[in-house]
Structure formats: C-alpha cells, structure tokens
Design a protein that fits this description.
Elements: E1 11-14, E2 19-22, E3 41-44, H1 52-60, E4 61-66, E5 71-76, E6 83-90, E7 95-100, E8 109-112, E9 119-127, E10 130-138
Antiparallel strand pairs: 1-2, 1-3, 4-5, 5-8, 6-7, 6-9, 9-10
C-alpha cells in the first residue's frame, strides 16, 4: 500500500487565474461552463507563489484594501519593476475584475472596488519582473 508523505505538497494550478489550490489539505471544487479546457489545469507539487522571486516582490510591493474608500492600494517601492496589470479573484479562483495599469504613478496605485460582496479575495499583481499575490479582506 502506498501513501502520500506528509511533507509532499499537492496543488491544482489554474493557468488562467494563476492560483494554486491546495488539494491535499482541503477540498477544491469549481463550476465551469460547458466546454473543453485543454491545458488550463495542472497537478503541481510546489506552490510557486512562494518562491524566492515572489518573496523579493513581497518586500517591495505592498497591497492593502481600505474599506472606507473601497480602494485597493498598491505601493511599488521598486525603481526597475513596473506594475502592468492587477486581477481580483475570489477564494475559489473566479476572476472578479481586472485593471490594466498604464501611465500611473507606480508608488501610489489606487483601484476602485465596487459592488463586491464581503469576503476574502486574492489580488494578483502582474509586474515586469514576475507575479505577486496577496489576500485581502473586503467587509
């Protein structure tokens, strides 16, 4: 009889959303429209959101949400990294909205979030040097 070692991580990676779903420690379900989804999902044994490059991005790109103003605030401390696009996903990986970041001062990006239910969300920041994800709470 074979078993999965406790130290082995197992994820389903959604290439469309860029989100890793831990399937070893919790159930994952997804509702999709009827169709063919070739090469969208893959089985992964490493959550690449936590690699060294993303840790470096984590130190220089700050993301938070302000309930009073209903804004996602992004502060980019890097001179050589540009925020190009920002995505907002719910916790099951559904894309809620996205923003193209063009001609915006990089040290103070403010994105309006309207008509979004209370809950936990994932903000994915696409930069010129890689991607960065952060959980936020909207209430």
């Amino acid at each position: 009889m074979r078993y999965v070692p406790n130290t082995l991580e197992i994820y389903i990676y959604d290439k469309e959303t860029g989100v890793y779903h831990d399937i070893k420690n919790k159930d994952y379900s997804l509702s999709l429209p009827v169709g063919t989804y070739n090469n969208r999902f893959s089985l992964q044994f490493v959550n690449k959101l936590f690699n060294i490059d993303d840790t470096i991005l984590d130190e220089g790109i700050l993301v938070n949400y302000t309930n009073k103003t209903e804004l996602i605030n992004i502060k980019n401390k890097f001179i050589d990294t540009t925020v190009n696009k920002v995505y907002l996903f719910n916790m099951i990986g559904q894309l809620i909205t996205n923003w193209d970041i063009e001609d915006v001062k990089q040290d103070a990006i403010h994105l309006p979030v309207n008509n979004v239910s209370t809950g936990v969300y994932i903000v994915k920041v696409q930069t010129s040097n890689g991607n960065f994800s952060k959980k936020i709470i909207i209430n």
